[in-house]
Amino acid sequence: MYDLGIINGNLYIDGKYEKLNLYITNEKIAKISNETYECKESYDAENKKVFPGFIDPHVHFELNVGKYTSCDDFYTGSVSAAYGGITTIIDFLDPIATGIEVEKALNTRKKLAEKSVIDYSFHVTIRNPIDEIDNIVDEMRRLQIPTVKLFTTYSESDRRTYDKEITKLLGLTKENNILVLAHIENDDLIDRNPAFKVKDLPKSRCSESELKEALKLASFTKDFNGRLYMVHLSSGNTLKALVEYYPDILNKDFFVESCPHYFNFSSNEYSEENGFLYVMAPPLRTEEERELLRANFDYINTIGTDHCPFSSEEKNKDKLSNVPMGIGSVEHSFNIMYSIYKDKVIDKMTIGPAKIHGLYPKKGILAVGSDADIVIYDPLSTYIIGEDNSTCDYNIYAGKEIKGRIESTISRGKFIIKNNEFIGGKGKYLTRKILY
What we know:
- By secondary structure, the chain is of the alpha/beta class.
- It is built from 12 helices and 17 strands.
- It has helices spanning 74-83, 102-113, 133-143, 163-176, 201-204, 207-223, 236-245, 260-264, 287-295, 312-315, 333-341, 351-356, and strands spanning 2-13, 16-25, 28-33, 39-44, 49-52, 54-56, 86-92, 119-125, 147-151, 179-183, 228-233, 254-258, 302-303, 374-384, 401-411, 414-418, 421-422.
- The strands form 2 sheets. Strands 1, 2, 3, 4, 5, 14, 15, 16 and 17 form a 9-stranded mixed beta sheet that branches. Strands 6-7-8-9-10-11-12-13 form an 8-stranded parallel beta sheet.
- Strand 6 (54-56), helix 1 (74-83) and strand 7 (86-92) form a beta-alpha-beta unit.
- The longest helix is centred in the middle third of the chain and has 17 residues, at 207-223.
- The radius of gyration is 21 Å and the shape is globular.
- The mean pLDDT is 97.
């Protein structure tokens, strides 16, 4: 007898839908069949779409940025994510500069994440690690953390990693089965004028800074035979240039992540009265760049949210330098993106991030033996986004009408969300192994 059966659903398997029954035992998918079998509990998914649980490879829960800490801790953030069909998140360790710091940083974040209701993992984060790359990579391998994030900016807080270390790290990726993640902005092109206001954000962090640095890092990736993952690409100009100049390494050695807000908003928001709510890095781009990004969606490998909200009071500051950067969207990311791209977005939130970040085939697919992470989606439901389950006191998507809605989320065979009600859950820490 199976623990749970999802009956009569339209299962998303290998890019197409099949009307089948899915059976779960001991947290795993045990059988997929058109036959009916006995199970302890059944869920009728007639006329519903059944997806693999979504993976958000880029969140910042409980992130301390000095004066402020992002609104959602690992409990509230994971509950909000579960309402959005997300069953796995990858957060970040606090920045380290030496190999000896990695394990302590991991233990600190793991302790905070114990209250997550969904599964979780972490990327190592480095800050100006002079002559420490080998030691950091050794620790990553020992601790089974195959991804490491660097910044090409934030020199003012000593978080920038310079070209010597970047190229050294890229040269070690393939032999060590690791992946470099990069926040890509040219530090020299960022204007930190202390007089800047919110409306000046596009001038402060100009589009050219992303474009120029992305092309440089793509050249490094190619020249040093490395693997790199660009986080939160913001501009269609950047994506178009990468497609034009580096088609041979895109989706092979150079991967691109973008975020829902770059597809849905433009830099025009910064001239509005509540423009401070949209302050993030990199910032929203022009309407032309947004449209170009939308048109080149096929070249995006993954959708991450970069979920990092701060309260409206914390963000409502006169000077740009005083505004904490970040917004939230884990609860709405799939619904928002699916409303634009339909089935084209599914792989970018399931099998795509699973393969790139070392979670496949445990996560990201509906297959026998994989974790029973499942989303049940009602394509006929229509609703208007209102308050959500984040602790943030505003939602930039509020008022948007959406057709189609996630009604239930299952993590390792247990309902976290059932018929739009929170049931509860207990996430697990995941080690990862990249398979290329």
